[in-house]
Amino acid sequence: MKKTRLYRIYFAVLATLVLAGCGGGVGAPENEPVQGGKVVVDFPADTLRQKLIEQKTPGVDANTTVFGYKAYKIVYETEDETGALVHASGLMVVPTDRGVRAEDARKLAYMRQKGFSLVSDSHGTIFADKEAPTAVAEATLAPAGSPILLSALAGFVTLQADYIGFGTSADRYHPYLLKHSSMEATVDFIHAARKFAKKNNIPLNSQLYLTGYSEGGYVALAALQELEQEENVTFAAPMAGPYMMDQMALGVVAQDKIPIPSFIADVAYSYALSYEHNVSELLREPYASEASTLFDGRYTRPQIDERLPKVTEELFTRSAIDGVLRQDPSYWFYGALQLNSTAYWAPKTPTRLLQCLGDDVIPYAMTAGTVNVMKNLFKAPDVEAVPVEVAYTGDSNTTLRLGHAACAGPAYLVVTRMMAEIRKKTIGY
Amino acid sequence: MQKNWIIGSILLAATLEAGGYKIPEQSLDGMALGAAHIAHTTGADSAYYNPANMAFLDPKTRYLEGALNVVHLPSNDFDGVQIFPPSTVVPASASSEREWAAFPTMQYVHSAQGRWRWGVSLAAPAGMTKRWNSPVQKTFAEKFYLLTAELNPSLAYRVSDTFAVAAGLRLLYSEGEVNSDGVVNGIRIARQMKGDTVAAGYNLALAWHPGSGVEVGVTYRSKVKLNEEGEANLYLGGVGRQYHAKVSVPVPAALNVGVAKTFDDRLTVELVWERTFWSAYKTLDFRYDTPIPPALVPIFDDPKLKDWQDSDTFRLGLTYRWDERLTLMAGYAYDETPIPARTLSYELPDSDGHIFSAGFRYRQNEHLEWGLAVLYDHKTKRTIAPGENINGIVGSFDKGGAFLTTVGFAYRF
């Protein structure tokens, strides 16, 4: 009896010791609480300036005004092509005084007093979930892309919707270059961001600027058309977008080869899903069957391009090629391309369409043609094309030519400068 | 909270009184003799120090022993500078935080079953803690601790009247915490990680008692790889994100060879050579379930070179039986650090040590003994020359070391 009791005591002590250690985690990270979203980046100005100098960013030196960079992830409601409710996400970047110099702190205080101007900057084509603005911010915890220019250097509040199919709605397909959902995702995000700003004491003035590059240029123009029905947009500057989808498709299928097949294949895939047609009506097998995998958000563009043929007739069905070449609006795909074009209307807002003359993916003629249609056919009062190389160098005779990817940086520099000048004239800073 | 208190007060083997983070002192006698306690073990702590000696204990008696060890770690003083890449030199003279901790140990040896005999020990064979609140040091090691608790059942076999062997199973529970919080290139970079694990190893022992008061003992404790797994919060600027993280640290293998000679049944002198195979500790490599922010990769993700070296410890223990009731003990050890100057870091600024210990046991009655032991580990001053250390440390570490006090009892029945 005595023996048994001793054993029990001994092993009870051992068990206590072993079990005592099980558990006791580190707890959730202690991040700043905000209402209606979460902080995903909070980066000091001095470190950002140092990094920009190290990266030899044009125009940035030790004396450049740089603000702190705070990014919020906001989840909001929007709707897809069918009108169904979707919980989408977007990134809102706000300039802060974290790590700023004294003179920049004074500038920022004045800007806060006047309110920040809002820029909706729609991002270009992405295929992988990890490339979405909120995903990049959450993965790096650091500033990235055009908001550095727009917010940290120019002092705008920048909005980047992830779009349906990325971020919070990554479980859905991305309605690529489809007007309704592109427009809704952007406009609804602007509304959600304004509410978020109000709740969290981020002062905004009434100004709204729209821009975006490539797919983002297309989305910005789509959003402008919707927004003009409800408010005065300050200025719109879409960049290098495929505004005339019908003409773009015509240009692609008229060629024997497609250098980057992922873009047009994704158009075919998302149009087929949105218009409830079989993908195999547009894409040949096995690509029609593989499309749902290729475009499920796991793969980047180079990975997708590796899996697709570069010969037009190997990628597209004969009927799709013929239907587009006929330019027959009764053919559902061509009709859809026309309907989803964002070129055929007249913006009231002062609008500048920026594009590089040397663009190798979307020809400059797309911008020139869109401006021509808007001005001459629809009588738009204030729409102009801006060749980026000319605006960037200030030389109307420049021989500089930049391709689609290389053009993005200079294009954002030019558009930021344009928007800052308008703000200076109207708001006073 | 209660769990944390239990861990902190019971399992906390927060000592650095031996090179690296091993803790050889696991009983009253072990503490009093500075772990010069391999060949001549006469109580329940044979189960830990040399389980082969269990075979030579009185076969009909059961032995139980327990001890409470109280540890005080004085602060480490650092006088020098820290170099941040590529060439920023920051004054970094500072002192680490003082630590107090306590941990229990227990051993039991059952009565013999023929030539066989089993025993079990509960020990804390490894542990470390270091906290810095100074700006530079907390960037690397605001808090660094490793706790272990080992359940170690062993089985001895008496081969002859003079020779016995034993083998045992090492079952380790371990918990680790790593915090760092500092400003690098103007931006806050911080980490909070907690993890735990259960791991296993083995131990082997032999005892040879050739007569004339001579005893020889050899023990080997295998390496146990602690694959700590838990959650890590990583911060860049004002935002943190949680990751599932893993990190592996070894409790190194150790070989002990002890020779003891007892004179006139009163004085026992024991010499022990311990070889600890710290070369198993090559890198400290944190791994995460998803990629961490690129800006944090060089600091928190890239493997940190450790490249520790196998180390030797030489121990001398004296046991003097004053009378039938009182036994006096004393020890000295020279303990080499396994950490090369090249990879020394603030989390464990170790140096060679001189360990002094003393204690006594008092027989209260036929069954019960109790006693007290103290140990002082004096760490030598260590200077890191410019260009010598890959972590950018230039300067001298001084003080540190440890004071330990053990109160123990032994019960025979």
Q: What would you report as the Rg of chain B, rounded to the nearest angstrom?
A: 22 Å
Which strand-content bin applies to the residues of chain A?
A: 15-25%
Shape of chain B: elongated
* Derived structural class of chain B: mainly beta
**Major pleated sheet of chain A:** 9 strands, mixed
Span of the ends, CA to CA of chain A: 89 Å
Number of domains of chain A: 2
What is the CATH architecture descriptor of chain B? Answer: Beta Barrel
Query: Percent helix among the residues of chain B?
Result: under 10%
| Total beta strands of chain A | 9
Annotation, overall tally of beta strands of chain B: 25
Quickly describe the structure.
The complex is a heterodimer of chains A (429) and B (413). Chain A is built from 17 helices and nine strands.
Give an account of the 3D structure.
Chain A is of the alpha/beta class and 429 residues long. Chain A folds into two domains: 290 residues, 3-Layer(aba) Sandwich (Rossmann fold), CATH 3.40.50.1820; 94 residues, 434 Repressor (Amino-terminal Domain) (Orthogonal Bundle), CATH 1.10.260. Chain A contains 17 helices and nine strands. A nine-stranded mixed sheet of chain A has the order 1-2-3-5-4-6-7-8-9, sandwiched between helices. The relative contact order of chain A is 0.11. About 4% of the residues of chain A have low confidence. Chain B has one domain: Outer membrane protein transport protein (OMPP1/FadL/TodX) (Porin, Beta Barrel). Chain B contains five helices and 25 strands. In chain B, the strands form three sheets. A 14-stranded antiparallel β-barrel of chain B has the order 1-5-6-8-9-10-11-14-15-19-20-21-22-25. In chain B, strands 2, 3, 4, 23 and 24 form a five-stranded antiparallel sheet that branches. Chain B is elongated and about 70 Å long.
